UniProtKB/TrEMBL annotation:
The lineage of its organism: Bacteria, Bacillati, Bacillota, Clostridia, Eubacteriales. Belongs to the glycosyl hydrolase 3 family. SUPFAM superfamilies: (Trans)glycosidases (SSF51445), Beta-D-glucan exohydrolase, C-terminal domain (SSF52279). Keywords: Hydrolase. One of its GO terms (molecular function) is beta-glucosidase activity. This is Glycosyl hydrolase. GO terms for biological process: carbohydrate metabolic process. It comes from the Bacteria. Residues 575-645 form the Fibronectin type III-like domain.
């Protein structure tokens, strides 16, 4: 232990107290023992340190900071070095605000396009997500503070996120949902990791020994601190035993007593407590020193310029019929759409940054050299039909050579706590687009959305520029690309399906029950569409440019490839060269091809460069459920180099020596998984893939019943609570303004009441509420009252002891 000298001076109560938060975003302090407090803060795309009263969801104001493009945006740059620059700037701002731990980046796999938090995540591909996240972590930690990659693991939806059980087979778990985290841990060495809310195969992630001990610490060598998501602790003692270091936010002293009782009863050992405390003290002392020596100011103008550069390099040109773009100087344009005036530049929820400044598209156009004939709002932002707005916009469109129509999802469509209902743009926006295209065919759509959309309306625009969610400087970045100041070089980090009905997870995403069955297995995103031969609107890795690139002279070995890339166009630009590995004759089923390397190369017009893309230990491996280890199937592999997953330019074959392991599925009947046709996998086949029966899916009246599920209990009081919450939620959604606080409460399990109320509610009181819900009305209420009195008395005594220690 690094801090045994301090730990041996503490009694059990003091040790246990330190393993949970002291406030919503601060750890506990014991000044008499020389142990200071540190601050943690949200930060996937900027620092969100709240000023004054703090709350988890970002409802109260926070200290101004730079709002960088979201992770979903920067992922389209395919540039880990750019991610590292953004991370370094965020780390600098965090230290300036005396924040020791920045809670990000998020790198969960985009299993479904409807996940409400996809804007916070990088990709559907674990290799790309891992490489980008590793860049962020290296940048954030350059000045000594800690990054906290999240949410570990298999956290792919917002509905019932605190009580859902992700049912996934071990191979899929390892290859898809953990590989990105593995890359981050091994290549960037984060000081902290955040565990996710959900269960993974029946055990909460925060107390899951398989995740936290077997894989994270033993297999990957992680020696940092594991932090719970806010309110994500189920059984604090089991969390400590199995590798969870710090319980957040401030669960109160009942949590301390719970941990002490677990030690005294032998449920866990004091050695478990000491091990976690050693991890925490290392984090506290290490990052506290970094914060203390960091300056309290930063160059806001430089960070704004970086945010603009990051957004510009991440913009994806999806359509450019007739080379309409870039626009020539003096081009006569009309600007339409509410987003031109009030940009949609970040997501809602705990990642929302109080931006230092926010550029609007209209303001940025003033220095573009374009001739703007006017602006019209065009549509109601929340989707309400308005003929007058549409008519005004159509009239203006007739006075311009080119129409710039700013479309997108409104703020509530993409939010923490709420999954999207569909992949569609609001109908009033589509009606405007069609009406404008009828009078002026030269329409450029500028699209603001943090995840993929259906695009049947593509015929109504000649150019489509995907800005994603570009942060506070995203509007200027769009102008840079439109005018050719920046040549677009972004590539999609996720597949855009033709329709949500094509999604491989549509029948097993955000359903009614508590379990979430990952029946699609390995076939997420392009892995499904390409294996099953399904057409898409835009493939993974796709993006146009104002110039063109030629590939030639591919040379390949099992360790990687080299090739020559030439800019064959008339302007300088960047190309993302992508390397996919395929084994068409595989005996162990696998996707048709998988991304295993990439490189972004900048080329002047006419310039050629040799590009090298190495392959690492993840290039050929698969997880063998029979040997419980990584194995390699020997034989011939294709190394495919392309400009997207669907645009393979060069192919070479290499022979790879295998590990000689037997096919784990040789005697298992898995016809759908062998073909990739996984949208209708029978129960028996999914059970065979799991290697165990599919868990039953039923609501239980226990500590993990959500407030929204109380209607399934036996208490009239519970029915009333569920009905009121349901009504409030329904009304807020109908208004187009879902209440994040109501959303959080509706999906919150009862045990979280003891974790999210600053000690006002104890777990004993929760057990009384459970009894009430089970139908023991009077006894349940009496227990709540007795436990409440006991909690107040015990808390007062403990706080007095801790303050005097």
């Amino acid at each position: 232990m690094k801090h045994a000298d301090i730990i041996q001076t503490l009694d059990l109560e003091q040790k246990c107290a330190l393993l949970s938060g002291g406030t919503v975003f601060d750890t506990r302090t014991l000044p008499g023992k020389g142990i200071p407090s540190i601050t943690l803060s949200d930060g996937p795309n900027g620092v969100r340190k709240q000023a004054g009263a703090a709350d988890h969801l970002g409802l109260n104001p926070s200290v101004p900071a730079t709002c960088f493009p979201t992770s979903a945006t920067v992922a389209n740059s395919w540039d880990p070095a750019l991610g590292e620059a953004v991370g370094e700037a965020m780390g600098e701002e965090a230290a300036a605000q005396e924040v020791s731990v920045l809670l990000g980046p998020g790198l969960n796999i985009k299993r479904s396009p409807l996940c409400g938090r996809n804007f916070e995540y990088f990709s559907e591909d674990p290799y790309l997500a891992g490489k980008m996240a590793a860049g962020y972590v290296r940048g954030i930690q350059k000045n000594g503070i800690a990054a906290c990659p999240k949410h570990f693991a298999v956290n792919s939806q917002e509905l019932r996120r605190m009580a859902s059980d992700s049912v996934v087979d071990e191979r899929t778990l390892r290859e898809l949902y953990l590989t990105g985290f593995e890359i981050v841990v091994k290549e960037a060495k984060p000081k902290t990791i955040m565990s996710s809310y959900n269960l993974v195969n029946g055990t909460y992630a925060n107390e899951n020994a398989h995740l936290l001990q077997d894989i994270l610490r033993r297999d990957w060598g992680f020696d940092g601190a594991v932090v719970t998501d806010w309110g994500g602790s189920n059984d604090h003692a089991l969390g400590v035993k199995n590798g969870s270091t710090l319980e957040m936010p401030f669960p109160g002293d009942d949590s301390v007593r719970e941990l002490m009782k677990a030690v005294e009863s032998g449920k866990i050992s004091e050695h478990d407590v000491d091990a976690r405390l050693d991890e925490l003290l290392e984090l506290v002392f290490d990052t506290k020193a970094a914060v203390e020596k960091a300056p309290r100011t930063f160059d806001a103008a430089a960070h704004h310029a970086l945010a603009r550069r990051a957004a510009a390099q991440s913009i994806v040109l999806l359509r450019n019929e007739g080379a309409l773009l870039p626009l020539k100087k003096g081009e006569k344009i009309a600007v339409l759409g509410d987003f031109a005036r009030t940009p949609r530049y970040q997501g809602a929820g705990s990642s929302a940054v109080n931006s230092i400044q926010v550029d609007s598209f209209l303001d940025c156009l003033t220095e573009s050299g374009l001739t703007n004939v006017g602006y019209a709002q065009g549509f109601d932002r929340q989707g309400k039909a308005d003929e007058d707005l549409k008519k005004e916009a159509v009239a203006l469109a007739q006075n311009a050579n080119v129409v710039l129509l700013c479309m997108g999802l409104d703020e509530i469509k993409e939010s923490e706590g709420l999954d999207r209902m569909d992949m569609k743009l609001a109908q009033n926006q589509l009606d405007l687009l069609a009406a404008v295209a009828a009078v002026n065919p030269n329409v450029v759509v500028l699209l603001s959305a943090g995840s993929s959309l259906e695009t049947p309306w593509l015929k109504d625009c000649k150019a489509l520029v995907y800005g994603c969610l570009g942060g506070q400087a995203g509007a200027g970045a769009l102008v840079d690309v439109l005018t050719g100041t920046v040549c677009p070089g972004g590539k999609l980090a996720e597949t855009w399906a033709n329709a949500y009905s094509d999604s491989p997870v549509k029948d097993h995403f955000a359903g009614e029950g508590r379990t979430v069955q990952y029946r699609e297995g390995l076939y997420v995103g392009y892995r499904y569409f390409e294996t099953a031969g399904r057409p898409v609107a835009f493939p993974f890795g796709y993006g146009l440019s104002y110039t063109t690139f030629a590939y030639k002279d591919l040379k390949a070995t099992p360790e990687g490839v080299t090739l020559t890339v030439t800019n064959t166009g008339k302007c300088a630009g960047a190309e993302v060269v992508q390397l996919y590995v395929a084994k068409p004759d595989a005996k162990v089923f696998r996707p048709a091809q998988e991304l295993k390397g990439f490189a972004k190369v900048w080329l002047e017009a006419g310039e050629s460069k040799t590009v090298s893309i190495p392959l690492d230990d993840k290039a050929y491996r698969y997880w063998n459920v029979a040997t419980d280890s990584w194995e390699v199937e020997g034989g011939s592999y294709q190394l495919r180099v392309g400009a997207s997953s669907a645009d393979i330019r060069l192919t070479a074959e290499v022979v790879v020596l295998g590990s000689g392991a037997p096919d784990p599925y040789q005697s298992v009947d898995l016809p759908h998984y062998r073909t990739g046709e996984i949208t209708r996998v029978p129960d028996a086949e999914f059970a065979a893939l799991l290697g165990r029966p599919i868990p039953e899916d039923k609501i239980r009246i226990d500590r993990n019943m959500t407030l929204g599920e109380l209607g399934h209990g036996r208490s009239p009081l519970g029915w009333l609570v569920a009905a009121v919450l349901g009504l409030l939620l329904k009304r807020s959604i109908q208004r187009g303004k879902p209440d994040l606080n109501i959303l959080f409460q509706y999906n919150m399990p009862l045990r979280a009441l003891a974790k999210m109320t600053n000690g006002a509610i104890s777990m004993g009181m929760v057990d009384g509420i459970v009894m009430e819900a089970q139908g023991f009305w009077i006894i349940g209420l009496l227990r709540v009252i007795v436990e409440a009195v006991k909690n107040i008395a015990q808390n007062g005594a403990m706080e007095k002891r801790l303050k005097n220690s």
